[in-house]
Amino acid sequence: xxxxxxxLFAPAERIAPEQIAIEAPAVQAALELQPLLDAVPNVxxxxxRYRQVIYSNQALLDLLQIDDPAQIYGLRPGEVLxxxxxxxxxxxxxxAEACSTCGAVQAILIGLSGKAAVKECRITTRSxxxxxxxxxxxxxxxxxxxxxxxxxxxxxxxxRRDILERxxxxxxxxxxxxxxxxxxxxxxxxxxxxxxxxxxxQQLHQIAFHMIRDIDTHRILxxxxxxxxxxxxxLTDAAEVLRDAQAEYHQYGHDQHIEIVVEPTPTPVxxxxxxxxxxxxxxxxxxxxxxxxxxxxxxxxxxxxxxxGATFAVHNPLPMxxxxxxxxxxxxxxxxxAGRGLGTYSIKLLSENYLQGKVWFESSEDAGTTFYTxxxxxxxx
Length: 381
Hints:
By secondary structure, the protein is an alpha+beta fold. 41% of the residues lie in helices and 23% in strands.
């Protein structure tokens, strides 16, 4: 057994490759139904007491496009699937702080304790793609050793459709309700002053604008998830992006008594990017900050130039709970309720998968929360 290694959740210790080389053939010999297991379309693994792979059916080998299962023996599921958190600590899969919220690790530990478990988990891979999985763990005794059978089904398409539909319908319902309220008011238009009539018309125009933006955003996210998004890079002024975001959400902030402040940029900052996508990313950052703020707060927008690009920063004074920080960029995770979690995920998806940028955040009790997104001066084609 290797030495104990640092862990923030599940035990880190493993057995050495030589021991795996003994265990794996013993498991295969004990599995009398191996041809039947190879015919199962879902990924099916057997894990030893240290959560290491000692058997895999053909489905995983086909997925990974490998012929020799020995290539993954001794690894843990998160390492096989290239989960980003599986490589944060030397102990590997299960030992990072974020692993405490992972349904896969939780199910495996339950399985090794002698009970069956079914969980769902969301994995963001090292390449930036997102997987939604349903996992099953069931205890298994092999030659007197405690193991667990671990099955995986990819439910990403199911989750994607469900989340996109829920968010789209939720946003459309809210906007349609606003339109109905304003049209009801306008039936008695003569009771309002000229100034009030003009304000009503302007507000109705803004509602219609946001409805179109919601429809466009839904279309863009569907295209981005399907890798069909086409980019149109143009020379973009960073300060103008912030001013437009401030103008777009000014009324929302005013209604909630939250001020949106754009810090001045000493010198112009211009970069070449897809302006419409950047507008949606920064708009989402502002919208998230507004939703995380309370009456009397101020949200600060600023741009930080450097030789290679420009960093946009959106700050609000409230810190994020640690549990939220660990899952903030996962598709469908949100503190605002089920099916409301594409905001921060879309920021990362559009910025890192399409705009060649980087996304991160800082949050503390003293400093509040700041989301950052960096874009290069010139996108590479």
